[in-house]
Amino acid sequence: MTGNGRLPTESEDREFANAVSAAPATILAGMLVFGGAGWFLARWLDITALLPIFLVLGLVFAGYLVYVRYGR
After folding, report:
1. Continuous segment of H or E residues that includes residue 53
2. Is the pTM value of this prediction over 0.70?
């Protein structure tokens, strides 16, 4: 039930299901893209700390994107 006492429609259910599956995919994609960039830069510049830094940055940016897209 929604807040006003009615059952959600089929399109609302589908929209919720899409958001539930898209949120973890977005977070994983962000970590993969930023982690890949961090790995490349770490190998190129020989600075091993770049990989975990970029993984965390990818997680933060992807989490923010999920919040903006689905959390409001």
Report:
1. helix 50-66
2. yes
